[in-house]
Task: inverse folding
């Protein structure tokens, strides 16, 4: 069924390059790919990623993975569960504190509420700095200032989230549909009613949904900030790795995976109940 | 008419009652969890008030002293290690690049067999999916901690940790994009007698490539942020420097390094965003 060589040649003369792509164009097409490959090779060499080292490391990795099976708690189940509780407590407290602190901070970042321009500028830059720095860095700093333990972790996560949430809140406030406020004002609503019935219903779902999202994200962060001493299951995990207790490491990783999975599921349910469930019923 | 109004009234009342019940339940559970979290997390107002002056003085101490009549000298003193920071930051970006590239290859290897549409073997599909899920659910830092033991201290552990996590994260996004593709071109290509690779090369790739390229760039941005802190556990890059300066109370160095990181991250974000927009604009070919 395929076209004859003559026919193909005819098509090529009608529309040059449709059948046989000229060698030069083909080479040009390959050029970006070749450059990427060369760049990648250069990066590997520059970073000293030696294949022999990788090979030896893979051997060691296989060896220690062998020790991970079967995962075991080594009689420390109580300690592990307490560390997990600490992690979840850090995530919950940081989310709540940040969600509350971000309201005034977010208002300062918003022009449409009548905040002075220099104040808005300063508040926005402050929020940029605070959320530009990784929670892990804040955790390390706070561990230095207030000492080891979950308290430092709570402060670190709260600070980072406040910056993030302030930005999101201020965007939500700026995106309010003005016509709903006008409608309430036109029907004789007081300024309080305008806020309560016009503005709040528009902002609240965004606030709730963001707070839930940050709770999920904080659960993940809270599991690792322990690596720099900020308490929770990360501290335990780092310690177990240093001690080469691989079966316990595997157990802790499984616990983290389970906790993240459960928190995501709970948060998903809450999101449906708190946001979808609020909508007024439709009556035919 | 009044019948409809009455029905609306009843529906609203039950809706409100349900809402109130739900509010009480969720609010109560929340308060309980919050009250329990305070002691478990070791949080107390007294501790905060006690620590507050120290926090403020620390944040004050890491900022450099720059006198308006000695700006050049003071900035020079603040950034005494500028070239060193720059070199480490470049290495950090390269770590993120190498990790993203290896992760990309891993994601590409796993995503086709894991796809609903393209995966041929059920066992393989299941295995690939679980692998993708596992590697994206475990935080990079945990991989890094383990890899530092296996591969030694240095950028290699960081690159591999980023690669493994990225493979999972990219694989998930790639799979979602390829599940939404238009199947008609695939049928057309299958009808001409093409094999599995032909279908993917001619039918699938042109459809998903712009999306995938954009996801990969986005992942690269995220990976720079991760690479900057992986040094905390010995996995190379500028994080090691930051860790040392924080731990040794070299106050102004902390802000100097942090500023380099934030500036580099912002620059790469801007460049990558511009590129991403181009990929997605060229989405439709013919």
Result:
């Amino acid at each position: 069924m395929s076209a004859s060589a003559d026919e193909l040649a005819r098509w090529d003369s009608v529309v040059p390059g449709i059948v046989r792509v000229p060698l030069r164009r083909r080479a040009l097409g390959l050029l970006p790919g070749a450059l990427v490959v060369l760049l990648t090779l250069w990066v590997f060499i520059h970073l000293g990623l030696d294949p022999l080292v990788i090979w030896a490391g893979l051997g060691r990795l296989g060896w220690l993975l062998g020790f991970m099976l079967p995962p075991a708690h080594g009689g420390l189940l109580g300690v592990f569960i307490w560390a997990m509780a600490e992690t979840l407590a850090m995530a919950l407290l940081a989310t709540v504190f940040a969600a509350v602190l971000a309201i005034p901070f977010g208002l300062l970042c918003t022009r449409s509420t009548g905040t002075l321009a220099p104040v808005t500028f300063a508040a926005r830059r402050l929020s940029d700095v605070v959320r530009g720095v990784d929670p892990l860095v804040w955790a390390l700093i706070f561990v230095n200032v207030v000492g080891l333990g979950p308290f430092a972790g709570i402060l670190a996560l709260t600070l980072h989230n406040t910056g993030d949430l302030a930005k999101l809140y201020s965007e939500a406030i700026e995106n309010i549909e003005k016509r709903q406020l006008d409608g309430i004002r036109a029907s004789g609503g007081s300024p309080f009613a305008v806020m309560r019935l016009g503005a709040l219903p528009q902002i609240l779902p965004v606030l709730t949904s963001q707070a839930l999202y940050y709770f999920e994200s904080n659960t993940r962060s809270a599991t690792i900030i322990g690596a720099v001493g900020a308490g929770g299951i990360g501290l335990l995990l780092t310690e177990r790795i240093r001690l080469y207790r691989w079966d316990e490491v595997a157990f802790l990783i499984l616990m983290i995976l389970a906790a993240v999975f459960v928190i995501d599921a709970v948060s998903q349910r809450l999101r449906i109940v708190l946001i979808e469930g609020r909508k007024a019923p439709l009556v035919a | 008419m009044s019948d409809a109004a009455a029905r609306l009234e009843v529906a609203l009342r039950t809706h409100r009652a349900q809402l109130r019940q739900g509010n009480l339940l969720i609010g109560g559970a929340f308060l309980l969890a919050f009250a329990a979290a305070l002691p478990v997390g070791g949080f107390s107002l007294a501790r905060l008030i006690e620590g507050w002056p120290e926090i403020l003085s620390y944040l004050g101490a890491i900022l450099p002293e720059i006198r308006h009549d000695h700006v050049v000298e003071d900035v020079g003193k603040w950034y005494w290690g500028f070239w060193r920071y720059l070199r480490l930051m470049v290495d950090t970006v390269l770590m993120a690049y190498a990790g993203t590239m290896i992760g990309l290859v891993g994601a590409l290897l796993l995503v086709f067999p894991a796809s609903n549409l393209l995966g041929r073997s059920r066992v393989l599909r299941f295995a690939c999916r679980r692998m993708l899920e596992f590697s994206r659910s475990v935080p990079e830092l945990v991989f890094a901690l383990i890899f530092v033991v296996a591969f030694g201290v240095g950028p290699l552990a960081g690159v591999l940790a980023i690669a493994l996590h990225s493979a999972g994260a990219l694989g998930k996004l790639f799979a979602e994009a390829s599940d939404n593709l238009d199947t008609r071109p695939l049928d057309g290509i299958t009808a001409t007698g093409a094999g599995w690779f032909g279908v993917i090369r001619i039918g699938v790739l042109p459809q998903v490539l712009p999306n995938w390229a954009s996801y990969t760039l986005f992942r690269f941005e995220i990976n720079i942020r991760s690479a900057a802190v992986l040094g905390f556990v010995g996995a190379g890059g500028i994080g090691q420097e930051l860790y040392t300066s924080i731990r040794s109370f070299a106050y102004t160095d902390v802000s100097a390094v942090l500023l380099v990181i934030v500036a580099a991250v912002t620059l790469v974000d801007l460049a990558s965003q511009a590129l991403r927009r181009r990929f997605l604009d060229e989405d439709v070919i013919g």
Q: What stands out?
A: The mean pLDDT of chain A is 85.
